[in-house]
Predict the structure.
Amino acid sequence: MQYEVETIWPDLESGLDDIFGERRIEQKRYMTLYTHVYNHCINSIKSLVNPAILAPKSGRNSINDYRNGSLFSGSELYQRLKNYLERTVTEALQEGNEKHDEELFRFYVDKWKQFCFYFKVIDGIFDCLNKHLCEPGVEVNRDSKRVLFYVKTLLLRELDARFMQGVMDLIRQERDGQTIDRSFIRAVVEFYVDLGIDENSRSLERFYRQKFEKRFLGETENYYTTEADDFLQQNSFTEYMKKIEKRLNEEAERCNFYLHATTLQPLSQICETVFIQRKIELFQRDFGPLLEQERDDDLARIYQLCGRIEQGLEELKLALERHITRQGQNAIDEIAKKSPNDPREFMRGILEVHMRYKGLVSKSFRDEAGFKEALDKASSHFINKNAITKIAGNSSSKVPELIARYCDLLLRKSKDNIGEAEMEEQLQNVIAVFKYIEDKDVFQQFYTKMLSKRLIGGLSASDTAESQMISKLKQMCGIEYTNKLQRMFTDTELSKNITENFRKNCQEKDIALGLDFAIMVLGYSSWPSMPQLQMQMPLKLSETIEHFKNYYNTQHNGRKLSWIYSQSRGELSSTGFQKKYGFQAWTAQMAVLMLYNEAPKQALNLKEMMLQLNMPKDQLVPVVGSLLKCGDVAAGTEVENEIADTAVFALNPNFQSKKIKVDLTRTQMRSEVKKEAEKDKQYIEEDRRLVTEACIVRIMKTRKRLAHNELISEVLQQLSTRFTPNVMKVRTSIEGLMERLFLKRAEDAMNVYEYIA
Amino acid sequence: MSPNAQQSTTDESNVMDDAKTVTVAVHQLFERYANKPADNLGPDRIGPHGVLELLEDLGIGSTDRKVLILAWLLKAKIQCEFTADEWNDGLVALGVVSIDDLRMVLEKEERILEKDASKLKTLYRFTYTFGKPEHHRKMDCETAIVYWKILFEDRYALLDAWTSFLRVQQIDVIKSDIWNLVLEFFEQVDANLSNYDDEAAWPVLLTDFVEHIRKEKCTVGTA
């Protein structure tokens, strides 16, 4: 038959020779060749189908057999074409046997360009075969360029064998530090990429990835694995990190210059695995010592490098937390040995450690959230639990007290008050530490007391600083936290006006008080409780009090004034001593001294004083005691610990002082400090109970119905900004609220509470 | 329509007649126990003495659980007393006209309670309001213990431990929430406390109790 392979092949072969021989092929000749293939294909299919009809096999198989080509006689034609191409291409490439490296590569590139054109023509001629051809195991309906593809594989086989090692060697040489012709490698890479371009979607995959990248990455891994081990044998770990940094940069640059951009990711990953992941225990081992040695740059390097791998930072965060906690506790250990009660030392110790690591976290660890958290956890740990709290019997009020006292030192008028800018900075520091205090309500209590003393005593260094501090506290804890502080401040301001207006009023009404008078009117609910002093005021003072009462009532009808003598003080001048002295004294001290106005030489016994001042003994004794200490008053009889009713006191005519103005208020009349601490504790407990209940009610009011566990966790979370809440106490509060019918248990579920509107 | 309507009127009147006989019978029973001179509560109430007589007739002791069941069924407000309304409405609703009927009803109810947890719960909740003095909000602890014993007898193994715990801790009153939860506790928690859930909303007192038992067990274990 005229369509048999044997018949048409010679003509086809001469046509192929023409193509490879670069001889021109006329259209008519092209059509003849095309027709050979076409007729052959059509005929083969017919001869294939007919016998199938005559002797049908099982239906399923016949199609598959056709498809997989085992029955397709076109396969013989395809085989011949393949053989022809293999022979011709191999022959053509032999020309390059004498060539090397770049010359060889140029040769391949040229050949490739030629072949590309030839194959376009060949593909045209064999189009029909392409369409029907099915190789065993290969999907049908493949693109028609399979002939070209075949040649590509041929070409690559040559490239792989004769060429790839050379390229890899060049890259190795470059890594070893030699200069190489990079543009050559870039051309090779581009060639591999181009080879794939005809292949539809997986263009990079088949040639560049499979043939080039895979090998390149393998080489990289081997090279750097050896390098890492060798380098570490001869160099320190810190040098190693620098080396890695350099290598990673180089590889990124290499990729940028002569590899395909998509290689960067797997390339970096290989480097990171080899250099970091596989050596991670070195990083973890050296992190601690580097922290100790304060090698911030190296720490930053560890952070940068370990951050590149998954979970690489977790161990470091824990190590940092442990380290800061230890540092903080060591610092406070030292302070506890020397001065466990000095707020300045305490703050200095805390700040030194905290600021050091805050700086480190921000500089070396880029303020990464996990490292900041480690800093916070550690700070909170060592600030609240340390040698000083241990000395205080693990009392949770020691830290808040010291910090409140530190604030007092800053804000109280003294010789060494600091300037505004430094004050701002110091307050900022206080807040930085305050943030970590667990029991913020205890701080609030101490702070309130001290603020109260500063305001009443007029001892504030600066009003600006006071209000700055209040607003900082407000920022951190909310308006509720600073409400009272704010009102105390306002009361003080208003009192100045009240005093001024009262003076004017006295002038208008022609009332002569015979003394200077200033008043502070304090809101009962905002100020801390103050000890009451029961006593009969000397006439001179009580007159003024009456005047003020009248005045105040005309201004604010219905307000009840109660007088807190324990906080009042005044100045008086003396004539009873050798020199003329001015005394600053508490009102009670004044009252006692004024008893001697009538007859400076007389001696009074305690009983008489009690009667005249209408003061109970336990309140009078500390007052007299304070005057004894100052030497104003001399005891007529020996004073034991216990002053008897009959003890006699007189002015001390020999009293002397270097200063003209003598401050008697400094001698504290402290009598019941211990009791007060107990009261404070009760107050805190009570306050916490109220806050807890309010919190529960607030939550339930919005949620209406809530499961036990959710309620508990929400309450704990909300309260933790003020103090460390105790679950049992929260539960007791819930029960109390149920008892008082704010809440009830849901009828249908014992673990659910409902709000009662 | 009309014959039907006729029919129903007759039925109704029959029912009415029956109801009347029942009411009369029930009220006669009431009068047997009411207005005892020793009680001195007037004709509208059965007082403590009357109740004692009633219990005697029923053949049950004064600390029998059936006494509580009776009060519950009649929705009684005050201990050892029944008003005419409570008595009449209660017995009519139960369909009881004689002491024998009443005894049977009580026995039947008691049997049901053994099996029906929700019914036990209503009786249990009723006991709290019934058992405490009328205008008090809480029940004192000793009274509560007496009622627990009547209600539970030996149903729960932990009851004795619970009552002695309350006495050691010198608890004086049992708040209603605790009363309610005690039943839940006995019903839900095994005698060995293995399934006690620390995270659940148990009142603190019950948590303390559990801690106490666990501690005791530990010391026993180590000894």
The two ends of chain B are 86 Å apart (CA to CA). The first strand of chain B starts at residue 45 and ends at 46.
